[in-house]
Design a protein that fits this description.
Elements (H helix, E strand, L loop, with lengths): L1 H9 L6 H7 L24 H9 L3 H11 L4 H18 L1 H24 L11 H4 L14 H24 L7 H18 L15 H11 L2 H22 L13 H20 E5 L5 E3 H5 L6 H22 L2 E7 L23 H21 L5 E8 L5 E9 L4 H12 L10 E2 L2 E2 L11 E5 L7 H11 L18 H15 L4 E4 L4 H23 L3 H11 L26 H11 L9 H11 L3 H8 L11 E8 L9 E9 L5 E2 L5 E5 L2 H11 L5 E4 L22 H9 L6 H8 L3 E5 L2 E6 L2 E3 L2 E3 L2 E5 L37
Antiparallel strand pairs: 1-2, 1-13, 3-5, 3-8, 4-5, 4-9, 6-7, 10-11, 11-12, 14-15, 15-16, 16-19, 17-18
Helix pairs in contact: 3-5, 4-6, 5-6, 8-9, 8-11, 9-10, 12-18, 14-17, 14-23, 15-16, 19-22, 20-21, 22-23
Length: about 800
Amino acid sequence: MIAAANKAKSSPGRSTIIEMIESAEDCSSKPVRMPALGKAFPQPEMSLIENAMFQVNPDLEDHQWRKQFFGDMPHYLSRYFAERYIKSFNRKGRQYANKYLRKTVGEKINPRLKKVLGQYNQQVQYRDSYTHCNDLFREKLLAEMDKSELKVLAQQFADFFSVQLDELAASQDESQSYEESIIQVFCDLREIGRKFGYTPPYDKPKSDLTTADAECGILRLTCNRAWENKLKTKRSIMREHLAIAVGQVQKSASPYCSRDCLHEWQTQKQRNRDFIKGMSVFDEDTEEEIALSEMFYKSTGNPAIRRCELMVRMRGYENIAEAMGCEGLFLTLTAPSKYHHTRKKGGFIDQWMGNSPRDAQRYLCNVWAKIRAQFKRDDISVFGIRVVEPHHDGTPHWHLLLFMQPQDVKQASEVFTHYAVQEDFKELFPSINKKEIAVGPPNLRTRCEIVAIDPELGSATGYIAKYISKNIDGYAMDDEKDDETGRDQKEMSANVTAWASRWRIRQFQAIGGAPVTTYRELRRYANNDVNAFKSYVALLNSKQQYNLFTELFPDQNAYFVGPQLDFQGPRLNYSAMNQLQRWEVITCKYKAELKTETDSASAAMKCADKGDFAGYVMAQGGPFVKRKDLLIRNDYDVTEMGNEYGEYVGKIQGFQVTDETPVKTRLRNWVIQRKSQGLLDSEVITSSTAGAEVLDGPAGAPWSSVTNCTRSPSGRLNTGIKALLKRRGIHLDDHLVNVMEEGAQIRVDKDHIVKLRQGYYAENLYHPPELIDVKPEEPEVWDGWDSPETEIKDTSNYIPGWEDWESWDWG
């Protein structure tokens, strides 16, 4: 012990944590040196964390001894261990507290921390550590920086590379051409960037670089905003990786991701929601403005829509498999133990090499690449879906649902198992006292598992539905517990989504089949086509609408005298319909058409329009079609010099059928901007009708909290109704106007009920629509009884439409 202490005194320049721990003197049993009465030791310079522990245990030797455990540990992590030390000291004394530092922090935490910090030792650290870090012993790590510090560091990087650019450009041989010089300068700048631990842009062999690549890469390396984005990504990854090293990510602490990661993700989601609520999309051609929230949450950005689309795609694959006589396999692929850092029952894994979840994901991708290559050599064709989800410690594993021909099932299983257990195969054998013995069969289930889909036990989509839901928003899993943690499944869905966002891991990927982007563009085209027809019908006069009705319904008697309106019956009474009902009947008859000479392309569009993913895939060439053989491809509008770095920017604008003329689906030029005052005023007016109540809805009106009515195209059908209401000082939203058009009575306030009388012809004169008041019905009471008070329904929480999206659980 004395030799170790002397060695420590003679070697004050030790820099690594392990060296300091090995040479440190055990202070857990030494008596505390307290100052004499009336005297005080001069307090040494120390960080805030060290000062907190010094206030509890002011022994100077203990203070110097404690430094070795917190020298390289980030402050947001060291706070926890300092608090544990203080609690241990207060409860069980100095010896127990110092033993905790030596055994837990010194022997378990710090070695793991060193493995992770060694992967980031090339990161440039923030220089102004005294002001921002309150730490006198080291500079601030990238993981500890805030946004303002990242901006400063990004500017430092940009300035540094600008200086290097000037020096390298001046040192080039004048005999070289511009192309050779610019490529050489960029390659030299790339090497400097690698020394800092960052992957440079256009990271490919020098022989494959073009002049444009070099120019764009230099612009990125000398741009502070590009560096800021790169530093933010690196900072978040490093921060979470260090949290994994100290055991913050595990079942007994915070499953899947750290609490810090979850908090940052939730904060970012809130900022996104606030941004969306304050912005709108503006059509530069028609000057139409729509709230961004109305557009965004109808896209796949909404978790509910994303989940439904995945289920539709998976059901489509299952229908194809049934039609082709394919069999299904449910496969699970897991990484070796060295990629896992914490046991499910608790305790660190000794084999952990300091790998991050991204390293484990990279390993799984490499294994799958080998499996796919062997499938190709063996002429085995598969299609299906892959789901990536984390273990309790954040290490990813895969679930694959694959369909293949029955004769390929055995060979495919053997290939999958062979490559899944290829790395570190010895650890699969039983062990005694942690020593490997090649006795007995290996436990392959720890790496891979293969389950044949039994149609009698459930559909293939049912197998994967749970994994899709739990990794998005936990839909329909209210009473279920998470298999990994035993906690509420919906609560854990937020942790899983935050985990995928932090590590940038793609959770769902289709294997085989046709691309979903083209499927979406076909649906967009069909919707545009139908909307164009709806707008056309809205502009027709009464006679033209009647002629169109007789053309679309030649077997109907337009003047059949019967019930008011029977959408379910065999006849449609045209004369009994109001204007909105006629518009709906005519437009619902129309089906979108794709003008093409290829019948399969038209069939693909029709299948996509009605959500038949199986029909779309088969029209595209089937589940085994190659990308080069697709019938319909995406069409992109490529802009030269499309961004500040001079790069080509591609934006999807439609699709193309083989060699035919491309079809545009993005017909409107939307621009995101802040909400105009006019839109804000209209939203205030709309919100003021929250207390309006539908008293007597039309027959068959939907009883739900969302707008099920088809909105009038461009507001043409209800503009006149709104004008009538405005004259009376009444402001209703589109939903209430539409149901009013269908004949509903609307209670505006306690004693004010209105309804709309449709326009009509009488004695060759047209009487326009009229807004009339409805007298509230008097309650029936017995003679001699006092009239009861009129019941007033509380409608303060009624919000028409779906404007309560802020309260949705987005997972």
